[in-house]
Design goal:
The complex is a heterodimer of chains A (421) and B (170). With 421 residues, chain A is mostly beta strands. Chain A folds into 2 domains: 39-289, 6 Propeller (Neuraminidase), CATH 2.120.10; 294-421, no CATH class. Chain A has 2 helices and 28 strands. The longest helix of chain A has 12 residues, at 2-13. The N and C termini of chain A lie far apart (51 Å). Chain B is an all-alpha fold and 170 residues long. Chain B folds into 2 domains: 3-70, Rna Polymerase Sigma Factor, Chain: A, CATH 1.10.1740; 92-165, Arc Repressor Mutant, subunit A. Classes of the chains: A mainly beta (421), B mainly alpha (170).
């Protein structure tokens, strides 16, 4: 029993890391309290980058959506480049007097330089989500108003169109029917051609006593707003979704799910989006088990845009031609600590090759136990990820190609940022 | 119960739980803030429940388990604990072992770590943990078994190894 006591004792020492209660209450109050006068400005250009934001008055005026034709998410019409996009959009927390808000910024991928800053139009106080098309110009931002108990507004989505010439961003509100209140909004993902927008959330039909709600994913056609909806099922709340859950591929929409239904393992699922809507689980198939069901690392998977390959973080390699074990059949504990990224065939589930072997962060620090894939070329042969460039160095983001990770010089760490390429 | 009343009564305990789950203060702050804002927004429903704290705790757990794509990784910040401990030189070896154990805990997959925290910090049984995590009790036992086995192996590779973990009952 002494050994368990050691573990208990070690865990208790982590109480030293407990955030200050009063400070936490202040942070929450700043995010949820009444709007201050300073937040009422509709548009503000910030910084020396001469950011200019234009709000288009029309409810839906988005000619960019109509670039390309066809029913798919746009890979055929708008081939993805194998080079990382030159710009990305990130959400950054800023202090505005005593208040805290979340702005969006456009940055140069190579230098990290901020090219434009966008503040949420009133009455919204923060952007809480961002997703991008494949043209490195078009993004969709989700805005949220200050919240207070008993009062909520629907999340508001804006098209943000970046113009590299003048470093300007035009912001256009999107009129999408049936968006949930902010508290049930989970996330959104724009298809590569910008013609479809997937939204994950919870239903508004709420049983107030049991707090049961319906997790769902809706796909809006843009700019018209026609919607198809897949429902996860009664009693499965939107909390079952992972954070920032969705990515598009030729085969459909990949999403993280935390589980909650016997027989459906937590992991990365693929939703076939060709149908009219219906059951999320019936129209989905499991790509990879989540949360290290069979590995030593937290790993779901990243489906490449061509839907041919799943990239998984593992603690030890799987031999080419072999598969990960079934979700219900865990591997023996691994003794390997060096993390790696390995490709698996999405069609067969068999391992193809290890594409990257990471480093430990230092003698007393763990190996990097999680990778973030921020962007992928169509086939996954070029990735933008964050990874430790060498032993003992903190993670930076960079380009992974042909087994070599090249940090992007001058670029800021992406840790903690919500961003979209 | 209003949100303020709930916060006054239960927030310290929830923040401690978050800190142990996350392993470092900065991540715990981000996790707690994200969840508390959401809880505040839907307090009309949560506050009417029999156990609002249990629901918020589950929200924290879900947020912790789904944090992956926010470019966050689990690196336990043992610096504070280490600085605190160095003043007590008589127990240096013990504290070195504990730091090593914390470092090994930080390597665990998030679900395995969560199971250990819920079992050995929150003292929940496997059925309660399974309910919180949305999985079967057998899955919980599997996570715990693999986590504890990994700790034994990893600890044995440290200079200040915790050999006592080898062959133990945990």
């Amino acid at each position: 029993m002494r050994h368990e006591d050691d573990l208990r004792s070690a865990l208790r020492t982590l109480e030293l890391q407990t955030p200050d209660t009063d400070a936490m209450l202040r942070r929450v109050t700043e995010q949820t309290g009444p709007r201050s006068a300073g937040r009422r400005r509709l548009i503000t250009a910030m910084g020396s980058a001469a950011a200019v934001i234009a709000i288009a008055g029309a409810a839906v005026a988005a000619p960019f959506w109509v670039r390309g034709h066809g029913n798919g998410p746009g890979y055929g019409q708008n081939p993805l480049s194998s080079a990382p996009p030159p710009y990305y959009m990130a959400l950054v927390v800023v202090r505005d007097g005593t208040a805290t808000r979340i702005n969006a910024v456009v940055r140069n991928t190579i230098t990290g330089r901020t090219l434009a800053t966008i503040r949420p139009p009133a009455p919204y106080t923060s952007f809480v989500g961002v997703t991008g098309a494949a043209d490195d110009r078009t993004f969709v931002l989700t805005a949220r108003a200050a919240l207070s108990p008993g009062r909520d507004t629907a999340a508001k989505l804006y098209e943000a169109r970046f113009s590299p010439g003048g470093h300007t961003v035009s912001l256009t509100p999107l009129a999408l029917p049936g968006l949930p209140p902010s508290r049930f909004f989970v996330g959104a993902a724009l298809s590569p051609n910008g013609r479809q927008l997937a939204v994950a959330g919870g239903a508004s039909a709420i049983d107030t006593k049991t707090v049961s709600s319906f997790g769902w994913i809706a796909i809006y056609s843009l700019p018209g707003g026609a919607v198809r909806r897949w429902i996860m099922g009664p009693g499965i709340p939107e909390l079952a979704f992972g954070s920032s859950i969705m990515t598009w591929s030729r085969a459909g929409l990949a999403y993280d799910w935390n589980g909650g239904i016997p027989g459906y393992f937590p992991g990365e699922y693929l939703l076939s989006t060709s149908g009219p809507g219906g059951s999320l689980l019936i129209d989905s198939r499991l790509l990879t088990c989540g949360m290290a069901q069979s590995t030593s690392l937290d790993a779901t998977g990243y489906l490449t845009p061509d839907a041919a390959t799943i990239i998984v973080a593992l603690g030890h390699p799987v031999a080419p031609g072999r598969s990960l074990p079934p979700c219900s059949q865990p591997l023996p504990p691994t003794t390997t600590v060096a993390p790696l990224l390995e490709e698996f065939s999405a069609a067969t589930g068999k391992a193809i090759r290890v594409i990257y072997t990471g480093h430990r962060l230092g003698p007393n620090l763990p190996a990097q136990n999680d990778y973030s894939v921020f962007w992928s070329s169509d086939s996954g042969n070029v990735l933008v990820i964050d990874a430790p460039p060498a032993a003992g160095r903190l993670p930076v983001y960079g380009v992974l190609s042909r087994g070599t990770f090249t940090p992007i010089p001058g670029a800021p760490s992406l840790q903690g940022l919500t961003l979209a390429f | 119960m209003t949100f303020d009343e709930f916060a006054a009564a239960r927030l310290p305990a929830l923040l401690r739980f978050t800190a142990v789950l996350a392993g470092d203060r900065a991540t715990a702050e981000d996790l707690a803030q994200e969840v508390l804002i959401r809880a505040h927004a839907r307090w009309g429903r949560i506050g009417a429940m029999d156990s609002p704290e249990q629901y918020v705790r589950k929200m924290l757990l879900n947020e912790f388990l789904s944090w992956r794509r926010r470019s966050w990784r689990l690196i336990p910040n043992t610096a504070v604990a280490a600085a605190h401990d160095r003043a007590q030189a008589d127990h240096a070896d013990r504290y070195a072992e504990r730091d090593a154990l914390l470092a090994e805990l930080g390597k665990l997959p998030r679900r395995q770590r969560a199971v250990l925290v819920l079992r050995y910090y929150e003292d929940l049984d496997d059925a309660a943990i399974a309910s919180l995590m949305g999985c079967a009790p057998g899955t919980v036992r599997g996570y715990a078994s693999r986590a504890l086995a990994a700790l034994r192996i990893e600890m044995g590779r440290q200079p200040a190894s915790l050999d006592k973990f080898r062959g133990s009952g945990i």
